[in-house]
């Protein structure tokens, strides 16, 4: 038997989680490509619109600007709305939705949205990171995590097959790793943009940013573990021969990520399928990589802080624009465009 071929259980009474994950992950991929487009064109488009005070711009350009501004202000609402529409569409294609079932779906989705906004308020604020690219990458990671979390924990959706489920989560993990690498090269990229500059602030802010990255990474790894477990609980076994649950998978992931490895819960090669063992290896490698990045970014941030303090005396008489000023100017520009769109001046 090919160990990379998953024997997918049949969930005849549940909506197809594979279809939801495929559509949702493709949507996030398009969003990622849209982010790249914004990176190269956003400032030019917005500047042109800001300077245009006498006449309305062309419909295509206006649509792009409106999409940019709405995504800046309501990105999380856009993504959760798309996830809800995809879920309802797939469920309706599977079977006719009854009123009671629709109320249950909307109720579970309402609880899910509350959790999403609480998590975003704590960890994923739009201005959490000073660097624009890092901030948008973190949003994409957050969107991927919340989509897979919803599909895995919704009781009316079947779990996605392991190749599909792990593929989207692997993409989120790669984005997280790329941000960590950028943080080592320039630790100020993950510095918060909302705090005041003061002594030791930069190192503490970088430390907070790295903690957010590590928590995001652990969330991705937990979803990988739980996806394997939900497809087939036989991928994991306990020494006490008791039935495992979602909390046991969280415990297993944290212990494995911390490289403690008590061995009371361990992956099992079930019928020659090695997904549980592969995810365990990914957890170990991710732990070593994130530890190195964490230490490297914090140390580099401390060194950079000392260097900046040494230059403060030399630049006291110079009016040098800071990264914070640039960030505030950009946010102000977005606000101007947003008001012009609301007033239908564009």
From TrEMBL:
Q: Which domain of life is it from?
A: Bacteria
Q: Which residues form the Potassium channel domain?
A: 224-298
SUPFAM superfamilies xref list: Voltage-gated potassium channels (SSF81324)
Q: Does this UniProt record's set of keywords contain Transport?
A: yes
Q: Keyword check for NAD, yes or no.
A: no
In the record, biological process GO terms are: monoatomic ion transmembrane transport
Q: Where is the composition biased (Basic and acidic residues)?
A: 314-332
Q: Which residues cross the membrane?
A: 20-40, 71-93, 99-119, 140-158, 164-185, 206-229, 249-266, 278-303
Region named Disordered: 311-332
Keyword tags: Ion channel, Ion transport, Membrane, Transmembrane, Transmembrane helix, Transport
Which Pfam family, just one, is annotated for this protein? Ion_trans_2
Query: Which Gene3D superfamilies does this one have?
Result: 1.10.287.70
Name by which UniProt lists this protein? Two pore domain potassium channel family protein
